From TrEMBL:
Record GO cellular component, one term: cytoplasm
Keyword set, alphabetical order: Acyltransferase, Cytoplasm, Hydrolase, Iron, Metal-binding, Protease, Transferase, tRNA processing
GO molecular function: iron ion binding; peptidase activity; tRNA N(6)-L-threonylcarbamoyladenine synthase activity
GO biological process: proteolysis; tRNA threonylcarbamoyladenosine modification
Record note on cofactor: Binds 1 Fe(2+) ion per subunit.
Lineage, top ranks: Bacteria, Bacillati, Bacillota, Clostridia, Lachnospirales
Reactions mediated catalytically: L-threonylcarbamoyladenylate + adenosine(37) in tRNA = N(6)-L-threonylcarbamoyladenosine(37) in tRNA + AMP + H(+)
Protein family (similarity comment): Belongs to the KAE1 / TsaD family.
Protein name in UniProt: tRNA N6-adenosine threonylcarbamoyltransferase
Function according to Swiss-Prot or TrEMBL: Required for the formation of a threonylcarbamoyl group on adenosine at position 37 (t(6)A37) in tRNAs that read codons beginning with adenine. Is involved in the transfer of the threonylcarbamoyl moiety of threonylcarbamoyl-AMP (TC-AMP) to the N6 group of A37, together with TsaE and TsaB. TsaD likely plays a direct catalytic role in this reaction.
Top-level enzyme category: transferase
Length: 340
């Protein structure tokens, strides 16, 4: 009998079709990602119907590649894991259907994984020493959450966005200043040429919960600034706009996270999600953590974006707690963290 556990993981919640083989939750034997960015770039954002169709085309291919790269057969796989929410319902259904079919055909346990839990668990892959409890900032195109990680699979949401997610705001501002999609990397790049103190964009505070986020205000402030420049016939310095906007978002993300850690007594902070790969955010968080003697963890950029390795990492700890799904598992597009 093997002393380790191999999990085949599948992720298809948005516009990446991914499969991975993860051993014992922290060792990635393969991590295959088929991105649809070039397709959705034509439309300025993700088109759900197109995403679903592309998942159907790619899902078996990435699974086969993951097994091949890991040099394993399905007989050497111990369980099948899949993202079942939150996300685009059609996209989720492709991954869930594939996982259920494979689990049934090969008589393997099925593990349904929450997408945000996957992002949090990405930190375990490269930070072998990291263990709960800690505070995690999950920040992406669809999510901005400040999460207390009490234990593996046990979470409490300390704060969340009231409107736009941070990544969503990046996309909208990038579109407004003519950078296109995806907004995050493009704003980061042009910001390097700009002055982050050129324009004083607002930092929103939510009165009834100091740890909640709101980014619609800063997005609107950027749009108002652009409209004002147009009406006055003034030239817009796109680099300054991008840098000032990015600084406002990073300032809020960092300050909320640091304040949460201080109040709750955490000295370990992690970051996860696509925006966690933003250089300004990493630098700002690192500086504040160093001032206070906090330990900071974040994954490599490839593990910040949607991938299946993070799903395999989360699934391992769910399996150890006996959290196994049956073949009635369905896609839940608005699944809340901690809900099963």
């Amino acid at each position: 009998m093997r002393k380790y556990m191999n999990i085949l993981a599948i992720e298809s919640s948005c516009d990446e079709t991914a499969a991975a083989i993860v051993r014992d939750g922290r060792n990635v034997l393969s991590n295959i990602i088929s991105s649809q960015i070039d397709i959705h770039k034509l439309y300025g954002g993700v088109v759900p119907e197109i995403a679903s169709r592309k998942h159907i085309e790619k899902v078996i291919q990435v699974i086969d590649e993951a097994l091949c790269e890991a040099k394993l057969t399905m007989e050497e796989v111990d369980a099948v894991a899949v993202t079942y929410g939150p996300g685009l319902v059609g996209a989720l259904l492709v991954g869930v259907s594939a996982a259920k079919a494979i689990a049934f055909a090969h008589n393997k346990p099925l593990i349904g994984v929450h997408h945000i839990e996957g992002h949090i668990s990405a930190n375990y892959i490269e930070n072998k020493e990291l263990e709960p409890p800690f505070l995690c900032l999950v920040v992406s195109g669809g999510h901005t959450n400040l999460v207390i990680v009490k234990d593996y699979g046990e979470y409490e949401v300390l704060g969340k966005t009231r409107d736009d997610a941070a990544g969503e705001a990046f996309d909208k501002v990038a579109r407004a200043i003519g950078l296109g999609y995806p907004g995050g990397p493009k704003i980061q790049k042009i910001s390097e040429e700009g002055n982050k103190e050129a324009i004083a964009f607002p930092r929103a505070k939510v009165v009834d919960n100091p740890f909640d986020f709101s980014f619609s205000g800063v997005k609107s402030a950027v749009l108002n600034y652009l409209n004002s420049c147009e009406m006055k016939g003034e030239e817009v310095n796109r680099a300054d706009v991008a840098a000032s906007f990015q600084e406002a978002v990073v300032d809020v993300l960092v300050s909320h996270t640091i304040e949460g850690a201080k109040r709750l007594g955490f000295n370990k902070i992690a970051m996860a999600g696509g925006v966690a790969s933003n250089t300004a955010l990493r630098t700002g968080m690192k500086e504040e953590c160093e001032k206070r003697g906090f330990s900071l963890y974040y994954p490599s950029p490839v593990l910040c974006t949607d991938n299946a390795a993070m799903i395999g990492a989360a699934a391992y700890y769910d399996y150890k707690k006996g959290l196994i799904s049956d073949l009635t598992l369905n896609a839940v597009p608005s699944l809340k963290l901690g809900q099963r």
